[in-house]
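Pasting as-is:
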Amino acid sequence: MSAGGFRALQTKQVKHKDERIKLTNEVLQGIKAIKFSAWEEAFADKIISFRAKEISCFKVLLFCRLLTIVYEINIVFLLQATAKIWATMNSIFALCPGLVTLATFATYVYTADPGTENLLTAEKAFACIAIIAIIRVPMFQWPHFVIETVRLFVSVKRIDDFLARAPDISTVFR
């Protein structure tokens, strides 16, 4: 899928999201009239319909992103050894924010003490997502940091080996 296709799909998803938010806002503004007229179900169905359209666009975007990552991984095998490591790490770390979010929620829910229930409320979920969004950039930069650190150690080792060699004095004074 081309960049134009992604942009069109993203625009479509945002349009559906705006429609849903607008309708939700209207419902909240006129909640007394809606309740008085017993229109809750009709408005709920409309909101759910907009949400379903939004989610279907989002699923297509996620599927396209997955295809892009798979494509990147396939290209890895066509590149040189150093570039293979770089591309593989970039592809893996592109998945990290989603995997970290999933692992965090799963750990929270499934590690409850016996007799207690860890409920994942909207407050806790949004706080967690906000924190993960903050650390997303450092997670994306992590593979670059690792590779540059490896390069640093290789360079320092080569310089150390060069400086540790005893100079051949006979060639210096010729």
